[in-house]
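REQUEST ID: PR-0412
SUBMITTED BY: lab tech R.K.
PRIORITY: routine
TASK: structure prediction, single protein chain
INPUT:
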Amino acid sequence: MKAIKFMIKTAFLFSVVLFAAAFVEKDKLPPKDEILPELYSEPAQKPTNMNSFLIKTGSCAYTIEPKFDYELYGLVVSYHHSKVFWDMEHKQWQDYLNNKDMGVVWGSNISSGVYLDMKFTSGSWTLYWDFKWGTPAAKQKEIMDKFDPSKISNNHILPADDRIAKLVLSAERGDQIWMKGYLVNYTTPCWENFWRASSTTRDDTGSHACEVVYVTDFKILRKADQTWRAVYELMKFAMPLCLVLYIIVFSIEAFTTGR
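STATUS: complete
OUTPUT:
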C-alpha cells in the first residue's frame, strides 16, 4: 500500500505542477510568424441597404437597426461570455441577444508585435488593455508609442442564428477569426426607448466606442495552439482523481490494518 500511496501522491504533485504551467501558458497569444496575412487588413465598412427587423430570443423581442455592412479579420485577445453565472448586468438588462463580447486586434497592432507585450481582459461590456506585470517605465513608453487604439475593438456580438452563436462561443483567446454582418443599434420594449448603439468608427474611445455586430457569418481561420489547453483540461480531471484514489487506498489500508 505504501508504494501505491507514494505513486498516487507523486502523480498528484505532477498534475498540480502541470496544471499551474498550463494555466499560465494556455492563453498566450500566437507569435507574429503564425499570423495570417488577412489580419493585417482594416475592417471593411460601407452603408447598408438592410432595413430594420425584429428578432425574438427567449422572452424578449428586439428591434435591430442596421447601420453599415461590416467585415472584420482579427486576432481574439480577450472575450466575455454573457451567460456566465456572475454576469448580472446582462440578466438585469434582459439582454439575451448579446451572447459574447470579443476583443480583437488587427493591422499595425499585430505587425509591430505590440500585442505580445500587453495584457487584455474583458468585463461584462468592456475591454481593457494594460502593460504586463513588471513592465519597466521605459518599456511602457515604447509599447504605447507602438500601440494604436484604432486597431483594436470590443465587439458586442449578436448572432444571427444558433449555428453562428455556437461558432462565436467556440472562439478562444489567440484564435484568428473572420466575421461578417452589420453594425447595428438595437432595443427591446423593456428598455423604455433606450437603444444600445454601435460605434461606427475605429477612432473613438470610452464607453460608447464598442462595435455592436449582428453577425451573419463567422469563421475561425486558425485556432490557437491547443496543447496547453488540452493539458489544462486533463489536469483538472487528474487532480481530483488522484485525491479520490488516495482516499480509497488510505481507507482500504486503515480497514485492513484495523482487522
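NOTES: Residues 30-223 form one domain.
REVIEWED BY: pending
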